[in-house]
Automatic annotation (TrEMBL):
This is Phosphate transporter. It comes from Brachybacterium phenoliresistens. Its main location: membrane. GO terms for molecular function: phosphate transmembrane transporter activity. It is a multi-pass membrane protein. Belongs to the inorganic phosphate transporter (PiT) (TC 2.A.20) family.
Amino acid sequence: MTQTSAPPVRTDLPRSDRSWHLFFGLLLAVATIVFTLWSLDYIGDGASRVILLVAIAFGLFMAFNIGGNDVANSFGTSVGAGTLSLKQALVVAAVFEVSGAVLAGGEVTDTVRSGIVDLEAISLEPMDFAFIMMSALLGAAVWLLVATRMGWPVSTTHSIIGGIVGAALTLGLSTGAGGWDMVQWGGIGQIAVSWVLSPVLGGAVAWVLFGAIKRHILVYNEEADQKLREIKQERIAHRTRHRQAFERLDEIQQISYTNAMAQDAVTATRPDFDPEELESDYYRELRAIDEKAENLDAHRALQTWVPLLAAGGSIVISSMLLFKGLKNLHLNIDSAGNFLIMGMVGAAVWMAVFIFAKTLRNQNLSRSTYLLFSWMQVFTASAFAFSHGSNDIANAVGPFAAVFDVLHTGAINGEAPVPAALMLVSGVGLVAGLWFIGRRVITTVGTGLTSMHPASGFAAELSAAGVVMAASVLGLPVSSTHILIGAVLGVGIVNRAANWSLMRPIALAWVITLPAAAAIGAVSVLVLRWLF
């Protein structure tokens, strides 16, 4: 392949899409106005209204671009596989992303979540701290917008870290309050390691998982489907041969043979009939053909392996929700309780998928495979969306809430409260961003890097979830965005259809994410201090 950028995306909108544009535009405008009115009352009379308005603009701009890049990246496999349409993905994102943000997003957030820049080591005025956070939001958001327009899925966490590093360093050096020692360069080194470690881990796990799925399920089904087609052709040939033989019989022979076939038709419907009771060659041969189909057991892989795969996947996804998605709710469930919940979820999913697979026994085999993996992929996409809303939206909310806290209290605090209104408006901005600008990243992830099927999309999503969880437990420096891209490429390697030419600019974008956001953040903090 010679493709070096995402495939072209339609810019002409059908009438129905124009109405969706209008709806989300109005929703974002109304949410912004209502939130602005609420925030004017929240911060009180002592803070600058102009700075507040600028902070709101930067914060929502960041949330908008997270939706266009990070959320689009998460749903790219589902849309590319045909499991969800863009509008269905939007609905799922709206429900689960916003629910995750509002229900499990946490009541407080660290004001400097990354720990990359040691702002406590220098003497900062509260407003200078606010300017750093605002500049970080703008630097990250502008870079995300550029990457999204190019169709490059990049890390929002690395973007916001770059913005903070650039703004903090620039302010420290320009005022003499701090220098290069403000930056924890070991943390920057870990980010560099994640550029390689994340996609390699995601790709390796997806290669193993999808390789097993393809070998034990998809290839088995293809071979079974081919044998079923051969049996179908054998039935057609059998019917044609006997019809021609019947036409060569005289009238008396035809009457006698018809009576024998009529009696065999009744005999064959009895559940306990013996094939030796059949009198006509037609039904004896047809019975032999039917026995071939029964002995083939075409749906065996779907009934054996898919329920086990779904159960294992549900355990991984439920662990992600318990240990990451719901961690801010402080449910106070001990480790034994968490493992019991995961076990119950796995058993329930196994039973449900096994029953569902049995109900599809009389359906077309390829259609049955598509339906089973589509349902499982919708489940993983929904869980991903909830976990993403509860955790990764903090990339927008953390600095946003920090600025609000400075304006509200006039001081720098280690933790800042996160009002529900701020979470809700950020969620609206995130969903609006997915709709307005997310198509290019969805195209890259869903079809650009490799072609997707519900089975391969499910494998990529589940592999990414498993690696994210394992990395969290082991403390490895990884990026969920890079892991998912690596998983998609792992699927492409199994199918020998990975688009490496498109991966080259994406990898370059990962490398320049931090310095690009840092440069924009550096300029922004100087402009903000000059203006205010």
